[in-house]
Write a structure and sequence with these properties.
Layout lengths: L1 H5 L2 H7 L3 H8 L1 H7 L4 H22 L5 H15 L8 H8 L6 H5 L1 H8 L4 H24 L6 H26 L1 H4 L2 H22 L1 H6 L7 H6 L13 H28 L5 H21 L4 H4 L6 H14 L3 H12 L7
């Protein structure tokens, strides 16, 4: 990673990494899951994920003002719709994202977009629609500003940045598998919950970091229940009340994750590679919830599961993930932070 950021933008473009290399650099977790998918499904989802990472970069960048974010997202949305990115794109992105990992996907956006346009139209166009819808949803929330009144508004925000990803993934799975296509209607009913599950865990993990960049994704209603104001969240005297908010978020994440596990269980056992690729991020998220409850690290740093636990989840579910009963049992253990050694 250090070598990548040390190279010039032009050098990096000459190296022209594959979409898999880009995915590995931008998200090890999703790389692990997507790389295990059948080739045709994995290729589409890797490109879709990178397109969404470009949008994420402009929404999250600490170097951009709200107005600049809207300009960049508008430019990107137009390009997704067939417009021209412009010859200055790569150098301009490199200039604003010099130290930000998400900038990697944005810098290579012309390459990723060109490869995306070569996909079969029957899957390219649904993916394009969902990526553009998510990008436009981000723009809507930037215009609104960083204030979330209640859980309904939080879910609306999370739907734009993650819930739509559940729909996108289901479209790709159904395109790649006739068996999944037969269950597409059932999966679509759960797809939004699957996206909200992962995003709620992101909110939980990022409480401190988001606050430092000026965003508080915790609803005002949660603060009212804990008798706190946002600026009081990290004061030592308010430690116990702040942990009440952490636990409310953890419980919300668990409720969404229960439906996410149901989503994975709805995927036919015959499609074990797709099923397994869904199970992993959901169980990683469940383990994160388990270690976050009553954990001050959520407020003062970031609660993260260990690489050892990641490997354990991968190993165990590779053996037993075909069993719905096992998934229910293992999920329940993880969210309580009592998963057995394996």
């Amino acid at each position: 990673m250090t070598e990548h950021r040390a190279a010039s933008a032009s050098d990096r473009r000459r190296q022209c990494p594959s979409n898999w290399d880009l995915l590995a650099e931008t998200s090890r977790t999703f790389y692990l899951s997507i790389r295990k998918l059948p080739d045709n499904v994995g290729q589409v989802l890797s490109l879709a994920y990178l397109l969404l990472r470009v949008s994420d970069f402009f929404e999250d960048s600490a170097a951009l003002s709200p107005g600049e974010k809207l300009q960049w997202l508008g430019r990107w949305n137009a390009a997704l719709g067939g417009g021209d990115l412009g010859g200055d794109w790569c150098d301009a992105v490199a200039a604003i994202g010099a130290q930000e990992i998400d900038a990697i996907a944005a810098e290579y956006a012309p390459v990723v977009l060109a490869e995306f346009e070569e996909l079969a139209p029957e899957i390219r166009e649904p993916v394009r629609r969902h990526v553009r819808d998510s990008t436009q949803g981000m723009m809507r929330w930037i215009k609104r500003g960083p204030k979330i009144a209640d859980e309904t508004e939080l879910d609306d925000y999370m739907h734009e940045v993650a819930g739509r990803v559940g729909y996108l993934s289901t479209e790709v799975f159904a395109w790649g598998s006739g068996a999944i296509a037969q269950r597409k209607h059932r999966l679509m009913k759960l797809a939004r919950e699957a996206g909200l599950a992962l995003q709620t865990v992101n909110v939980l993990r990022g409480i401190r970091k988001d606050y430092q960049r000026g965003w508080v994704y915790i609803p005002d209603s949660y603060f009212e229940q804990a008798d706190l104001k946002p600026h009081q969240l990290f004061e030592p005297a308010n430690h116990q009340n702040a942990l009440r908010i952490v636990n409310v978020l953890a419980n919300k994440a668990e409720r969404h994750l229960q439906r996410a596990i149901e989503y994975a269980q709805t995927i036919p056992r015959s499609e074990h590679r797709i099923r397994r690729a869904c199970v992993w991020p959901f169980l990683f998220a469940a383990a994160t919830v388990g270690i976050s409850r009553n954990n001050p690290e959520v407020l003062f740093g970031e609660a993260k599961i260990s690489r050892r636990q990641v490997r354990r989840i991968v190993r165990v579910t590779s053996l037993f993930g075909w069993s719905n009963r096992f998934l229910d049992w293992y999920f329940a253990r993880l969210v309580l932070a009592i998963a057995p050694e394996a």
